[in-house]
Amino acid sequence: MRILIINGPNLNMVGIREKNIYGEKTYDDLCRLVSEKAAALGFESEIYQSNHEGDLVDKIQSAYTDFDGIIINAGAYTHTSIAILDALKAVSKPAVEVHLSDINSREDFRKLSYVGMYAEKTIAGKGFDGYIEALEYFKGK
How many structural domains comprise the chain? Predict the structure, then answer.
């Protein structure tokens, strides 16, 4: 199984920004953890991060032929991007939405998730472990 892990805007700043919310571990730490867990589960994986909505849409579209499932943390685009929702619908691959923080206990605008309108499962508030849970979800499919 090939899994695409997509991270949206500002995820590359994890470990630098708002440590009280996102912690001190870095984006490189996240990528290493996710890659190692995917390999241990027998998955091929690719991790992709962009701060640009169109790049994220393009990458999701690549999943149509190249991947079996998607794990996506669309960052702030979670709450604003119908384009990302439409791309997920277009490729019609199983998807799990992940958020490091608990978006439902934060500002009201974070409670709307366009990605969640498509995703089979949403995991929020578990930090890096949310990505591990998402990988394990795919293993159980």
Answer: 1
